Amino acid sequence: MNSFLGLTVPSGYRWLLDRALIGYEPFTQLQPWHYLPLEQCFWASDRWPGVTDKRLFAYAKRQDCDDLACFIVAVDGTVKGIVLIHGWTGDGFEFCHEFPDFWAWLKHVVDDIDNWVGAGE
Fold first, then answer.
1. Residues 6+ apart with CB under 8 A from 81
2. CA distances from 111 to 28, 45, 67, 106 (A)
3. C-beta separation of 95 from 83 below 8 A
4. pLDDT, tens only, 60-94
5. 119 phi and psi angles, rounded to 5 deg
6. How far apart are CA 42 and CA 70, in angstroms?
7. What is the Cβ-side half-sphere exposure of residue 30, based on CA atoms within 13 angstroms?
8. Are 61 and 41 in contact (CB under 8 A)?
9. How far apart are CA 31 and CA 56, in angstroms?
10. What integer pLDDT is reported at residue 10 of this predicted model?
């Protein structure tokens, strides 16, 4: 695990960065997904209060829509899972999918890449 903005994030988060497998901008390595630059990361549960009792920290975005990947953060700052939300809705955001860990989310990203590449053929 690594420390990041007061969170203890999964080692896979940093692993992708260390190997340049993901970028901070749209149209980079894992498009349609990219990490949010540090200054754009935010607490979704604070931006849209009252939607959930989970503490959600947005760290990645899908470039073609308002889907965000968020760490589910425990009180002690450890990540307990990942949730995919669709932001900026009438209620603030909608839950799309929950993943037990970072690697399950990354498998979903690979499926999104497959669909993205297939749509362009």
1. 71, 72, 98, 99, 100, 101
2. 16, 27, 15, 9
3. yes
4. 999 999 999 999 999 999 999 999 999 999 999 99
5. -70, -25
6. 9
7. 23
8. no
9. 23
10. 92
